[in-house]
Design a protein that fits this description.
By secondary structure, the chain is an all-alpha fold. The chain has 2 domains: 1-34; 58-121, Up-down Bundle (Methane Monooxygenase Hydroxylase, Chain G, domain 1). The protein has helices at 3-32, 61-85, 87-114. Helix 2 packs antiparallel against helix 3 (87-114). The protein is flat and about 65 Å long.
Length: 121
């Protein structure tokens, strides 16, 4: 057996041990814990206030899109910081690529603004 396959075999063995330990701990917990079903355990609890009405409510898609835009621009901004620290090493090619990247981000932001996605209400 080559060294390459031996390394993968080691990873597979440790993965199997991890899954075995996980199954063992979960099984042991199921055997040891007390089981006393009560109806009050299954009631939704939030901030010490008793729930009123059903738990289903329709949320506007606007909040999801707003959060998605935030995450997208936040992650994209993370790419700018390493580039800024190594600007001398990248030279003009890196500067032009980053300008294109920032212009693309600005176009995305402009598109979201024109579609009125950034309005909270």
């Amino acid at each position: 057996m080559s060294e390459f396959y031996r390394n993968y075999l080691t990873v597979a063995i440790f993965t199997g041990i991890a899954f075995g330990l996980l199954a063992g701990v979960l099984s042991l917990g199921k055997l040891v814990r007390p089981v006393r079903p009560q109806a009050d355990k299954y009631v939704s609890y939030e901030s010490g206030v008793d729930p009123v009405g059903d738990g289903w409510a329709q949320t506007p898609i606007r909040y999801y899109v707003f959060a998605l835009l935030f995450v997208m621009f936040d992650v994209e901004a993370v790419f700018i910081f390493p580039w800024a620290t190594r600007l001398e090493a990248y030279g003009w090619f890196g500067a032009i690529e980053m300008i294109a990247f920032i212009v693309l981000l600005a176009l995305g932001l402009l598109y979201a603004w024109r579609k009125k996605v950034l309005q909270w209400i």
